[in-house]
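note to self: the first set is below, dont mix up w the second
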Amino acid sequence: MEPEIQLESFHVSSTMGFVLDDPKTDLPEYYQPWMSIAMDLPQLIQTHQLQDRVHEMPLLSTTHLQGHREERLAHLALGFITMGYVWQEGEHQPVKTLPRQLAEPYCKVSEALDLPPILVYADCVLANWKLRDPTGPFEIGNMDTIFKFPGEESCRGFFLVSLVVEQAACTGMEGIAMVMNSMLTQDNRGVHDGLEMVNNSLLKMKEMFGLMRSHVKPDVFYGTLRIFFTGWMDNPALPDGLCYEGLFTKQLRGGSAAQSSSIQCFDALLGVKQVETSADSYLKDIRNYMPPAHRHLIEVLESRTPLRSYVENSGEQDLIDTYDKCVKALVDLRCYHLQAVSSYVSAPSKRAHRGDPAPREEKGTGGTDAFCFLKSVRDSTKNVLISPK
């Protein structure tokens, strides 16, 4: 029999989901050259001083980093510095070589964490937060980010809204474990109750996503913040990728919500298969941008007895209806994401490029055509409804 799924063994918390619980906010004194630059990033970018500060930075060893949280903070800090360094002069003038004093430690920390040397969702969303009042609640009013890009409140809001969306997934992860473990003993009541948890979690995620409207201004996101998530794969401004001085040249995708492990876990549970080959290969590829324990959970879920077949064969209409309710909630979340792309990318793009003779093709920060990709995954999700109505 397949073993039970224990979320803790995949570094998933019952209260925080995939969010890094209690992240470190400072590194040992030795690493202050990194921290002082990372903490002052918006000012350094806006005054065009960041690249000079990086050139003055000493080459530091990563051997003084102790434990997972210090490594995650180092990856976060170096990731922010890297994105600011590459894009300081705007989307049409990227730097093509990352200097050794930044490239070498960044690649070493990345190797230790089994993450790529580029800012990922697991950095800027899952590990980039702190409570203003440590005894207070986990809500946006009591939180701040550790590092920021230019964009002021919209930057803070973008990261923190994404964070509370992820935290809302925690009950869904518990529901997934309950569903999979109940299937092992053919406990249909347990499967049903787990699916209810998944549905409630998806509804809560959509509700939290709605906070974006009051915390992030579309023109600030599009015109100021978005460039710093842009990667060096399928990017005409960096056709060969980025050179990490003394090491290699790499093509890497920029950070995006598609790197969310929770959404891919819901897909794996419900048996969502991508109709478009390009969407399928993209979603599999970006697992390499997730912490290894998180990507492993997705793989385990995909390898288990398919839930959809189990529910269909149960003959229990209540179970079928509850499964379909979860699928519809995931479709709704994806529809909402499409609306957000329209509000935060398409509409500001049209305003910014009004009068351009040629229509502009907008790519997502992960390198895909965001609209086509999201429509494709939404439609693939609809396909797994047992009783489409």
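second set (the one i keep forgetting abt)
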Amino acid sequence: MLLRVSWDLAKAGLGSRNLTLWNMASKLGLLSLKLSTTAVSSNKVVDAAAQEGEFRVFIVAGEVSGDSIASRLMVSLKKLSPLPVRFAGVGGFLMSKEGLQTLFPMEEISVMGLWELLPHLNTFRKKLKETTEAALLFRPHVVITVDSKGFSFRLLKQLKAKYLLEDTCPVHVHYVAPSFWAWKGGEARLQNLCKFVDHMLCIIPFEEEICRLNGLAATYVGHPLLEDALMLNLESGFMSNNLKVHKSGDVFRREHGIPPGATIITLLPGSRLQEVKRILPIFLRTIEIIRNSFSELSVIILVAPNNHVKDLVDKIIQSSSLPAILVPGASLDQKYEAFSASTAALCASGSAVIELQLARLPCIVAYQTHILTELVIHYRTKLKYISLPNILMNTSIIPEVLFRNCTPGNLATILSELILDKNIQEQQTSSAEKFLGLLCPPSKNVNMLRGNLSSGIIWCPSMIAASTILSIQKQKRD
């Protein structure tokens, strides 16, 4: 069986509300589709699954951001697959909601850095062995690893070696290309990935071409976080053609008893235990420095859906004299309502800065790590910036306070300026639309895929990724 997708142009006669939705969806490449299945002779991965009556997907994510991306992909695979989909692997809270029974808590492999990894090496090896054995027993048609390149690439490499003794070899897909373009000699390493990665799903525009030039099959699908804008706005009935999440900050203020004129700072200390332990105390001391300079200052902390992080945040808050409102990061509604109510944000480097751009919340990106890791980064990196908006637009539009410069005093000075200077705020918010536009799905897919908004299936980065996976050619064993 081969998944065949038929497209119906349904713009005419939609009515004014749906026309606005159409315009916004078109801008994002979020166009809906209708599905039919037809028996066709093909060598695509889904055809091999048809012989067994189910599509088995072994999927692994090791970070909170990867859990979010993977869960969206799981939803899309279930919608697009002509066969029942069965999942196994490693993931977090969001992936579990979509039917994954994780082998072990995702947090056990969520470690970033060089020096920081050393104390966890033994656990890392054990979990890698456990995951490899589970994948072999599951006999998947496709293995999908999401971000977390340290664990993901070791897993795919070990599996590829094991398949030499097997009759069949599943397709290996890695979702979210590593930042090879950021490191000296990074592009040359892509050639080694071809040995155990069959297809790369890219979320940054220029990565697909670089992968292909180095012999690695790749598809640019767009950034999955852009889906927040359409989904939340559709739910609230807000019509907008721009890439912005529209939520009411008044609702959040009323629920938490915050007066209208209060200054609200949101802290996003990250999703990994090590980074939260390092950066959250710095953020809190920063707020303590400026708290007397602003009347009725309130603090929000976005807490990642990571049990270890939740416990650590509670412990740090208890030892601080600063009251804070804790918002669960797993709730899109609460997260964006908090953003809408806020004046500014302090953000650990990572994908959270994209969410702040979607909310048009001015922010500062901060990052601190072990001194040895910092030295390696300085030696190997080719970039001037660390946050994606600054990288893609080649500008310091978002202030970055990094490494040894990341001190409460430095952050307090820059944060105070950001709160008081409307021009700086406007520069950030006005550049957000341009930045987010760079992360939209490619126009070739948007132009090719036209659908009916009433069909209930929305074409978006996650759907493009799922469709790509289903149509990948089955690899023959070497």
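remember for set 2: The CA atoms of residues 204 and 245 lie 21 Å apart.
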